[in-house]
Design a protein that fits this description.
Layout (H helix, E strand, L loop, with lengths): L3 H4 L25 H13 L4 E4 L5 E3 H18 L7 E5 L4 H12 L3 E5 L5 H11 L3 E4 L12 E3 H9 L15 E6 L9 E5 H16 L6 E4 L6 H14 L2 E3 L6 H11 L3 E4 L1 H9 L11 E4 L6 H11 L4 E5 L6 E4 L12 E2 L4 E5 L12 E6 L12 H4 E2 L2 E10 L5 E6 L3 E4 L2 E4 H9 L4 E11 L3 E10 L7 H14 L8 E4 L13 H13 L1
Parallel strand pairs: 1-10, 3-4, 3-5, 5-6, 9-10, 9-11, 11-12, 12-13, 24-25
Antiparallel strand pairs: 1-2, 7-8, 13-14, 14-15, 16-17, 17-19, 18-19, 19-20, 21-22, 23-24
Length: 525
């Protein structure tokens, strides 16, 4: 009834190629993703099976989650007048009511705009302006920053829901109706708004979920990413519900707290960023992960040393993967015997990938270039000229530099904006960071290109040292010498700067663009 989302899809000529190459990716014309995510598993696995847990001991069964999702849909339609196609903004950390609200919006035929609780008014305002929500469902603790639209807090939502029957027939949506408007993480600057259909939500499970992750109904899954970060949405909502598994929802946790939660609650599957795994290893807490049967790393490339240390100490072979908000989840990965250390993996069944040169021509094995991906999900930006940059010749071009080996495995080099050209040499920033991070006094580092009149660019490293270590000229030389002994000497950081922390966005991704701006502004002045 409200056609805003469909009206603001990019022109069809600018869409990437969409392919449905496996049997499970063939969908009926009419499909509501929420029905598949909660009604179907409740019927299949039983209403009493635990669906959601919290560290405080709260447990929601599948039956309870279904009832509350239906009640939320009733509140939206009967009390708040939501009509199909209208947008609903969600703002909350990861907790059970957010899952119920997320499912309820889809059941009511609404379009989700899931935002991170860490965002402030200044960051929320452009998202609200572009997506034009009719209603915001907001955790009471985070209502203050939501301005310019009607707000229903979770406390109010729970009271209203309690008065409803819990019986609701999901709106008859099309498989290609827009279900989700997901802002990108903004790791490269201004976020884009990606547009995803009902079928897309199921497709991430019918690809990565089914063929790589392979959850069972006995799994307890933990993930540190927020729901607004689509990695977290898949790991904590889509994949567990489709498998009849249970999700442990944590609103915020440090890496050490995550390790404690894994041990305390018997988590079997953990998904987090490489920085968390590195921190757990650094603090000697890896034994707390001994109960895991599966670990997933995404968001950034996991250093080979980190992967090997987890395997050597725990026998835990971390599933690496690369995904993008534009494609909703992971599309290149490997698990079990298919893992090749140092490689990100192969295209997940349902996807195909290639490496492109600057002109969009496919490159051969061993030749680094831009990663291109085609599958059942693809980039569709809401009213954004950058659509033309992301889609090239039908390929989703992610902005990552990879090469493909003779066996079809993809090997990561850097983000395309993170490749440093110095005196004619191509230097991958992540390789330098990995070398710096092996120094015993370094907690983490970030490397960017610093403009240089003589060499074009030089490697500039921002380094966070462990507590009690002084960042002086002696430590600079020590780190530089360490890098020279670890990788090719020409890759060492000629400029080393010490910081107490590195800039990250609300999803935890490193904001290298903020560091680049620092060095570029210095050159300009």
């Amino acid at each position: 009834m409200d056609t805003f989302a469909r009206d603001h899809l990019p022109p069809a000529a600018l869409w990437p190629t969409i392919e449905f190459t496996t049997p499970e990716l063939h969908y009926p014309a009419r499909l509501n993703a929420a029905t598949e995510l909660i009604d179907v598993p409740t019927a299949k696995f039983g209403p009493d099976r635990p669906a959601l847990r919290t560290p405080a001991g709260e447990v929601w069964s599948y039956g309870e989650l279904l009832t509350r999702a239906n009640q939320v849909a009733q509140v939206l339609v009967e009390d708040l007048g939501l009509v199909p196609g209208q947008r609903v903004l969600l703002r909350s950390p990861n907790n059970p009511w957010t899952v119920a609200a997320w499912l309820g919006v889809l059941k009511a035929g609404g379009v989700l705009v899931t935002t991170m609780a860490a965002l402030r008014t200044r960051e929320l305002a452009p998202i609200v302006e572009r997506t034009r929500p009719s209603i915001a469902l907001v955790d009471d603790r985070f209502a203050e920053d939501v301005q310019g639209l009607p707000v229903v807090t979770y406390r109010d939502l729970a009271v209203r829901a309690q008065a409803k029957s819990g019986e609701f027939t999901a709106v008859d949506t099309a498989a290609d109706d827009v279900a989700l408007l997901a802002p990108t993480s903004g790791s490269t600057g201004t976020p884009k708004i990606t547009m995803h259909f009902h079928r897309d939500i199921l497709s991430i499970d019918n690809t990565f979920g089914r063929h790589v992750l392979r959850l069972t109904e006995n799994d307890l899954v933990a993930c540190t990413a927020p729901f607004a970060f689509t990695f977290g949405l898949g790991m904590l909502v889509v994949f567990p519900l489709r498998a009849g598994a249970c999700a442990l929802l944590t609103e915020a946790a440090t890496p050490l707290q995550v390790a404690d939660l894994v041990a305390e609650h018997g988590v079997t599957v953990l998904a987090t960023a490489p920085t968390a795994y590195k921190a757990i290893l650094r603090d000697g807490a890896e034994s707390k992960l001994a109960g895991l049967r599966t670990a997933v790393s995404a968001g950034e490339h996991i250093p080979r040393e980190t992967w090997q240390r987890l395997r050597d100490r725990l026998g835990l072979e971390v599933i690496d993967g690369i995904g993008a908000t534009e494609l909703l989840h992971i599309f290149i990965s490997a698990a079990g015997d298919d893992i090749r250390p140092g490689s990100t993996g192969k295209p997940v069944p349902g996807y195909r990938a290639t490496v492109l040169d600057a002109d969009g021509t496919e490159l051969g094995p061993g030749e680094p270039g831009r990663l291109g991906v085609i599958g059942p999900v693809g980039c569709r930006y809401l009213d954004d000229a950058r659509q033309k940059d992301y889609v090239v010749g039908g390929w989703n071009v992610t902005g990552d530099i990879f090469h493909r080996d003779e066996d079809g495995y993809f090997h990561y080099h850097a983000r395309s904006d993170h490749m440093i050209v110095s005196s004619g040499y191509n230097i991958g920033g992540p390789e330098v960071e990995e070398a710096i991070d092996t120094h015993p006094d370094v907690l983490e580092s970030a490397v960017v290109a610093k403009p240089d009149e003589e060499r074009g660019s030089v490697v500039c490293a921002f380094v966070v040292l462990r507590e009690g270590v002084e960042g002086d000229a002696t430590k600079v030389k020590e780190i530089q010498d360490h890098v020279k002994q670890t990788i090719a000497p020409y890759k060492y950081p000629r400029d080393v700067r010490f910081r107490t922390s590195l800039p990250r966005n609300a999803s935890g991704k490193l904001q290298r663009f903020a560091l680049r701006k620092i060095v570029e502004d210095e050159v300009l002045t």
